[in-house]
Amino acid sequence: MLRIDFHTHTTFCDGKSTPREMVEAAYRMGSGLVRVLTPECNRVVLQTRLPEAIVTAYRSAEDAKEKLTCAMEWADVIGIGPGLGVEEHAGVLLGTVLEAWFGPLVIDADGLNLLASHAEWQVLLAKRAMPAIVTPHIGEMARLLQKTRQQVLNDRIDCCRNYAKSQHLICVEKDARTVISDGEAIYINTSGNDGMATGGSGDVLT
User: Fold this and answer.
1) What does pLDDT average to in each consecutive run of 10 residues of the chain (206 residues)?
2) Contact (CB, 8 A) for 178 and 171
3) CA-CA distance, 125 to 131, in Å (whole number)?
4) Can you tell me the distance from the alpha carbon of 132 to that of 103, in angstroms, rounded to the nearest whole number?
5) pTM (predicted TM-score)
6) N or C: lower Cβ tally within 10 Å for the chain?
């Protein structure tokens, strides 16, 4: 998984929803500075709830791309997806990250939904020298593989391992039992509990 130490600059890109859980988790893991790239409508909420975070707000898709480009020069790690949405600005953010960011990368939630509908971005993902980490739940895994939920549930290990291998990444397939693969090895985390069914828990993993 991803190690964050006190030197690390972490950037989260989000959309209409605020990524409070992600930011708090990053600080608790020991990230030195956390920047949140978010729409202007989230600025006051984030600065009130998380005054320690660096908030960079954007007003349009074009503004988002410009500010993300600057943030990538600052960041050591990028997380994208939770709260992102699937509107124009979301596609601009994910596309920019996949085209121009070559460091540690975690993609979750709407980032995965956007990937599932853009084959060209999955090609970019597979070409990364440093494998990204994707953290799909069963529904997101099904969309990425163009399968049904039941097909994924019936063959979770091979679905996880084959997707990781074909996309040259690390796949963390979330459910009551989490399956993790780099395309070769398989790890199964059996420590899940009903607390992880709470909305937002997956954002903490990101």
Assistant:
1) 46 67 87 91 89 93 95 93 89 96 95 95 95 96 97 98 98 95 97 77 77
2) no
3) 8
4) 9
5) 0.91
6) N
